[in-house]
C-alpha cells in the first residue's frame, strides 16, 4: 500500500512538473560525469554534475523498470546520492534525473552495478564500476520520464486532465509542494532529533523531544533494576495530537529510583521512529521536620531534638543575636530521630537556631526559627532505667559478679553505694570509677557480693554544673551457691558412713 501510494504521488509530481513548465526555458540540465562508488555491501554512492543548478533524483531497482526512487534534495550543480539498505550480492539498475527551477528534466543513461557478497575495502570510484546499459539513452535530451521508459497508464492520463483544469500557477506550485512532502513522508524514516530531555521530580517526570515532522508522542519505560534490555513494563502517551515538539508526563513513579526509557513517535502515514534507551533518576522524597523542641538549655550549651518523615542528615545553623556571629554543627548519618547538642555558647545570651534536614538525594528543607537564652543550670540530672544482673561463677569458692546499669538525662558523673541487708548497722561501701567522666550511660561492676545474700544500693549523680541528686534505694538478691559434684559425693558417703567426716575434716 505504501509503495502504490508512492507511485501515484510520483506520477502526479512528474506530470505536474511537465504541465507547470510553461516558461521560455525549455532546455533541461545536461547530465555528465556519472560516477558510482561502492560504499559497503548494502550502500552505493552515485555522483554526477549538471550544467545548471538542479535537484538530484535517482531511480533504481533490481529490474530495468526500477520501482524505487531516492527523493530529490536541494538544487545544486554537483550531485551526490547514497543508495542504502541494498541487498548484498545483487545486481541493481539505476539512472539519475535532475530538474531545473523551470521543471525541465535531464535523464541519464541506464546503469547497473552489483553489490558485494561480503564487506571489502573501499576500492575507489569511477565510471568503470558502473556500466551504461544503453549509452546515451535519455542523456541530456530533455525527455520526460515517460519518454525514458516510465509507464504512462490511465492513472497518469487522469492526473494530466486534472492538471489542465488548473489555471493559476501558484495553485499548482502548492500542489507540487504538498506532493513532495508526502513522498518524503513515505520514503524517509521518521527521525528523533537529538537526545530527549528529562525533568524528574519525586514521583513524576516530564520527557521532551523533537522529530523532523509531526507525529504522536509515546514513552516506554521500566525500573532499571528490573529492565531486561528489551521489554519495557510501562507505556504512557500524550493526548495532544500530532506535533514536532513532544512532551509526555510520566506519573506514578517511585522516588529516588533509576528508570530506563525510550521515546517513540509515529506520523500520520504510519512511519515510526524511536530513540535508543536512556536513563533518569527520580528525586528523593523531601523530609518533613516535625516535633522540633529545645530539650535543655545550660550555661554554655543547648540541646535541640526533632524528627523527620524520611531518613535525613542533620544540620543546625545558629546565631548569637548580640554579636551576630553565626556557626553550625552537623551529623552526616541518615536518621529519622535527631538530637544534637550545641556547645561553646555564652552564658546569658539569646540565640536563634534553624534545623536543616537533607535527604539521600541532597535536597534540603529548613525549619522555622527557634530561639533560646543560655542560663545557669540549676536542675540536677534525672536517673532512670536502673537494672542489675548477678552471675555465679562456680569453683572451690564461688564468686558473684553483679552488673548495675542506669542512665541520666544529661552528662553526669555517678557513684554507687551499697550495704549488706535491708536494715541499718552495716557500714555502706561506695564504688566509683578512678577517672571522673561525664556521660549519660553508666555501668558499674561489683565482684565482692556474697551468694544468697540481700543487698541494697543507691546512686549519686552530679552534672557538669555541680547539681547533685541521689536515687531511691534499690534491692538485689545474689544467686545461691550450687554444690559441685565432689561435695555432693562426699555428703552422700557421710550420710551412709559416719567415718567419712573424719576424712574430710568435718566435725
Q: Strand fraction band?
A: over 45%
Query: CATH first level of the largest domain: which class?
Result: Mainly Beta
Uncertain stretches of 5 or more adjacent residues: 120-130, 133-153
Count the strands? 31
CATH architecture annotation name of the largest domain = Sandwich
The CATH topology of the largest domain is given as Immunoglobulin-like
**Number of helical elements:** 5
Q: Provide the helix percentage.
A: 10-25%
How many discrete structural domains?
Answer: 4
Give a structural overview.
The chain is mainly beta and 507 residues long. The chain folds into 4 domains: 2-187, Sandwich (Immunoglobulin-like); 192-281, Immunoglobulin-like, CATH 2.60.40.10; 289-373, Immunoglobulin-like, CATH 2.60.40.10; 383-477, Immunoglobulins (Immunoglobulin-like, Sandwich), CATH 2.60.40. Helix content is 13%, strand content 46%. The protein is built from 5 helices and 31 strands. It has helices at 2-20, 154-164, 169-187, 485-496, 500-504; strands at residues 31-38, 44-54, 57-61, 68-70, 76-83, 91-99, 105-107, 111-114, 125-126, 131-132, 192-200, 205-215, 218-223, 234-237, 243-250, 258-266, 272-274, 278-281, 289-297, 302-320, 326-342, 350-358, 364-366, 370-373, 383-393, 399-420, 429-431, 439-446, 454-463, 468-470, 474-477. Strands 25, 26, 27, 28, 29, 30 and 31 form a 7-stranded antiparallel β-sheet that branches. Strand 26 and strand 27 (429-431) form a beta hairpin. Helix 1 crosses helix 2 and helix 1 (2-20) packs antiparallel against helix 3 (169-187). The longest helix is centred in the N-terminal third of the chain and has 19 residues, at 2-20. Residues 120-130 and 133-153 have low confidence and may be disordered.
Amino acid at each position: 500500500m505504501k509503495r502504490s501510494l508512492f507511485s501515484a504521488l510520483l506520477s502526479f509530481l512528474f506530470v505536474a512538473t511537465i504541465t507547470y513548465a510553461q516558461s521560455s526555458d525549455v532546455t533541461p540540465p545536461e547530465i555528465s560525469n556519472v560516477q558510482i562508488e561502492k560504499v559497503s555491501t548494502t550502500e552505493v554512492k552515485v555522483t554526477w554534475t549538471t550544467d545548471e543548478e538542479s535537484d538530484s533524483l535517482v531511480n533504481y531497482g533490481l529490474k530495468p523498470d526500477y520501482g524505487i526512487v531516492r527523493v530529490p534534495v536541494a538544487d545544486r550543480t554537483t550531485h551526490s546520492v547514497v543508495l542504502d539498505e541494498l541487498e548484498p550480492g545483487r545486481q541493481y539498475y539505476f539512472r539519475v534525473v535532475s530538474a531545473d527551477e523551470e521543471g525541465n528534466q535531464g535523464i541519464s543513461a541506464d546503469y547497473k552495478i552489483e553489490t558485494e557478497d561480503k564487506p571489502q575495502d573501499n576500492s575507489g570510484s569511477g565510471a568503470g564500476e558502473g556500466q551504461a546499459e544503453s549509452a546515451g539513452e535519455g542523456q541530456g535530451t530533455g525527455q520526460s520520464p515517460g519518454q525514458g521508459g516510465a509507464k504512462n497508464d490511465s492513472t497518469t492520463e487522469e492526473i494530466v486532465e486534472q492538471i489542465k483544469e488548473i489555471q493559476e500557477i501558484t495553485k499548482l506550485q502548492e500542489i507540487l509542494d504538498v506532493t513532495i512532502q508526502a513522498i518524503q513522508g513515505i520514503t524517509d524514516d521518521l527521525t528523533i532529533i537529538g537526545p530527549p530531555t528529562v525533568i524528574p521530580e519525586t514521583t513524576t517526570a516530564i520527557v521532551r523531544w523533537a522529530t523532523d515532522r509531526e507525529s504522536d508522542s509515546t514513552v516506554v519505560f521500566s525500573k532499571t533494576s528490573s529492565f531486561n534490555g528489551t521489554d519495557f513494563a510501562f507505556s504512557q502517551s500524550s493526548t495532544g495530537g500530532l506535533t514536532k515538539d513532544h512532551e509526555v508526563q510520566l506519573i506514578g513513579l517511585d522516588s529516588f529510583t533509576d528508570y530506563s526509557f525510550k521515546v517513540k513517535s509515529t506520523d500520520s502515514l504510519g512511519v515510526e521512529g524511536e530513540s535508543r534507551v536512556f536513563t533518569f533518576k527520580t528525586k528523593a522524597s523531601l523530609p518533613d521536620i516535625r516535633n522540633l523542641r529545645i530539650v535543655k538549655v545550660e550555661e554554655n550549651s543547648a540541646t535541640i531534638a526533632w524528627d523527620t518523615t524520611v531518613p535525613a542528615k542533620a544540620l543546625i545553623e545558629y546565631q548569637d543575636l548580640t554579636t551576630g556571629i553565626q556557626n553550625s554543627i552537623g551529623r552526616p548519618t541518615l536518621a529519622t530521630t535527631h538530637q544534637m547538642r550545641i556547645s561553646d555558647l555564652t552564658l546569658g545570651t539569646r540565640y536563634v537556631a534553624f534545623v536543616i534536614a537533607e535527604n539521600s538525594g541532597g535536597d534540603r528543607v529548613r525549619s522555622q526559627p527557634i530561639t533560646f537564652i543560655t542560663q545557669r543550670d540549676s536542675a540536677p540530672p534525672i536517673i532512670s532505667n536502673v537494672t542489675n544482673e548477678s552471675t555465679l561463677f562456680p569453683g572451690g569458692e564461688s564468686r558473684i559478679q553483679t552488673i548495675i546499669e542506669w542512665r541520666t538525662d544529661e552528662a553526669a558523673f555517678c557513684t554507687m553505694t551499697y550495704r549488706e541487708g535491708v536494715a541499718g548497722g552495716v557500714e555502706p561501701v561506695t564504688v566509683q570509677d578512678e577517672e571522673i567522666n561525664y556521660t549519660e550511660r553508666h555501668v558499674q561492676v561489683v565482684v565482692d557480693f556474697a551468694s544468697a545474700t540481700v543487698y541494697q544500693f543507691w546512686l549519686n549523680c552530679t552534672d557538669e554544673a555541680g547539681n547533685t541528686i541521689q536515687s531511691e534505694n534499690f534491692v538485689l538478691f545474689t544467686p545461691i551457691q550450687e554444690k559441685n559434684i565432689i561435695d555432693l559425693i562426699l555428703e552422700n558417703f557421710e550420710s551412709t558412713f559416719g567415718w567419712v567426716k573424719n576424712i574430710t575434716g568435718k566435725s
